[in-house]
Amino acid sequence: MGSRASTLLREEEIEEIKKETGFSHSQITRLYSRFTSLDKGENGTLSREDFQRIPELAINPLGDRIINAFFPDGEDQVNFRGFMRTLAHFRPVEDNEKNKNLSNTEPLNSRTNKLHFAFQLYDLDRDDKISRDELLQVGAALAHGDTRVCYVGGGGGGGGGGRFGLNVQLQAQLAGPALLCNVCSADFGLVQIMPPSSGPSGSSPVVTCNCCELAVT
Amino acid sequence: MTDPVSAAAAVFQLWLLIVVFFIVLPAMFGISLGVSGVYIQVLVRILQWATVRIQRGRQEQPGGATPSAGIIEHTGGSMEEEMEQLRLSRRPEAGEFSLSDAIYFCQKGLESIVEDQVTQRFSSEELASWNLLTRTNQNFQYISLRLTIFWVLGVFVRYGVLLPLRVALAVIGLSWLVLGTTVVGFLPESSMKNWLSELVHLTCYRICARGLSATIHYHNKENRPQKGGICVANHTTPIDVVILANDGCYAMVGQIHRGLMGVIQRSMVRSCPHIWFERSEMKDRHAVTSRLRAHVSARTKLPILIFPEGTCVNNTSVLMFKKGSFEVRGTIHPVAIKYDPRFGDAFWNSTKYNMVSYLLRMMTSWAIVVNVWYLPPMTIQAGEDAAHFASRVKSAIARRGGLLDLAWDGGLKRGKVKDCFREEQQKMYSSTVVQNGIEPPGSSRNPPEEE
What we know:
The structure holds two protein chains of two kinds.
Chain A: H1 11-21, H2 25-38, H3 48-52, H4 55-58, H5 63-69, H6 80-87, H7 95-98, H8 111-122, E1 130-131, H9 132-143, E2 150-151, E3 171-172, E4 191-192, E5 207-209, E6 215-216
Antiparallel strand pairs in A: 1-3, 4-5, 5-6
Chain B: H1 4-28, H2 35-60, H3 79-87, E1 96-97, H4 101-114, H5 145-185, H6 191-210, E2 214-219, E3 230-233, H7 239-245, E4 251-255, H8 259-271, E5 275-277, H9 279-283, H10 285-297, E6 304-306, E7 317-318, E8 332-339, H11 355-363, E9 368-374, H12 386-401, E10 404-405, H13 419-435
Parallel strand pairs in B: 2-9, 3-6, 3-8, 4-5, 4-6, 7-10
Antiparallel strand pairs in B: 8-9
Helix pairs in contact in B: 1-6, 5-6, 5-8
Subcellular location (chain A): Cell membrane; Cytoplasm; Nucleus
Domain EF-hand (chain A): 26-61, 110-145
GO molecular function (chain A): calcium ion binding
């Protein structure tokens, strides 16, 4: 990792991060100084404890899951590149219009990648599916077991809107408000996300609405 | 044939005499010769010129950007408002949690990772523009020759001229304090003794203030703390004590230290009643409160000086006031202290610097310019509990000093946040979901089916 140079982020590294994530030069330097201020051990990487030292994150009901998102593949330390890669998901989508880079890979902050990030908040065992248990775990985390709050969702078939009993095994699908199907009326159909890897190469992944099977991007 | 050693000694003696006659003696009697006033004005001019020059240089360079540009696009709004936005299209019923609710917490969590309100209070404030001190230089880029010359000159002046002067003044001031209070301590209890002790304390603190090139502006002196009251202020540095004691005498509260501090503390308490605690006693809140109460109820004693934050904060905000001192049932005299960060960073980052290196940094800054506002006295109202009273006083101080009013505990500098705050967030979410369920429009919704 090199010497502990808290203010020396080399220009080549900044350029690489800029290409990979789309952040501007000043944003990268600012986030780097934030990274070093969080890095109490001064070894160039952040551990889970470094994140938990942020009080506003520690009181967030989903704080632990958000921290896990920074540590893929079960590692314990994240370096600056990984830190920026995860943060890049949260850049506004409109910014991509401004700096169109000509690379063929999908930008990290595309709509699909954002949804994938949110999906992983629920999918703890990383099997690309959200089980009923995982769903209820998130509900319990948000509401601290308040029994007045329950989950109501659609079944696997079209139309949806029904309540399902607690003893029904169910594979839920992620519903995002931004991806409403314009055709279905009030009781919208649930949207199925295809993982980016399974889409045909070269074209952007397709998101379909279950109820009317129209392609919605 | 002059001997170089004796020549140096003669120069030193002359210098010392000048220091004593032109700085120490006027300081003791509160007279100013106007030198520091001129110095500050010259400094302000130079720093203004430097700011303009740096901004011009930054515009000329490609790829430069303002350092403190915001990085988060805040939508603003409470949890209820944002939840409503998220759930608008989903139209769930009351009590129903929607998958997209997690997105609100995810967003807030990421925002706090990029920039949070608490951890930044425990490190020095970022300056809008460089003030020609190496320590505040974050993106050093060569801008112009003149700027560099000024910086070099500044280093020479601060380290070569000002530092020895200030060290000498500090030594004189502290030894005068120890000697004076010990001598006064031998006198029997009388009003003469109190008057002398106040004189000794005042003169010593005035010398120490000159030793830091402190320019203090007191506002609203009619609200100065009276005998038998409690003075509370926001805490940035141990120098706060010197700043406040330049204008009046206070009874200090604190732990007994070892070493030099302990010597000073023990001699101070001989001449007038300060409240020093052993380390073990500090943990016993009841003992602390009863001693404070005993001091306050004897209305002839000096006002107690307390910093309810419990720790040093970087002077951009006021953190939670511990309610212990507000349970004592005295009159509270709030004081707001605000340092001007252009002339030197007064914040003591105790995790980074120990006392000696902190004082050295203080003595090699340009100066310390500080505004002190005395606020009108406040008392606890009927039906108000100590915690609420504490936060009322805190808001008054924050408003007066132009500081941010935060409810976070200063103990977060070293400790973890309590779980009950997380439960508060969860409770807020539950009540939002239960109450703000959006009614479905008309009959377009299918009736619930049993499975």
